[in-house]
Amino acid sequence: MVEPLFEIPGLFAGRTVGFLLIILIFVLTIYYMSQKKLQYVRRVPALDAIEDAVGRSTEMGKPVICSYGLGGFSYWTIAGLSILGYVAKLCAETDTRLIVPTGGSHDSYIVREAAVDLVRNAYTTAGKAEMFNEEDMPFLSGEQYAYTPAYIGMLVRDKPGTTIMTGSHWSEAMNIAEMSNAVGAITITAGCYTSSMAALACASDYIMLGEEQPAAGAYLSKNPSQLASIRVQDIYKFIAVGMMILGLIAINAGSEIINRLISS
Question: Rounded to two decimals, what is the model's pTM?
Answer without folding.
Answer: 0.87
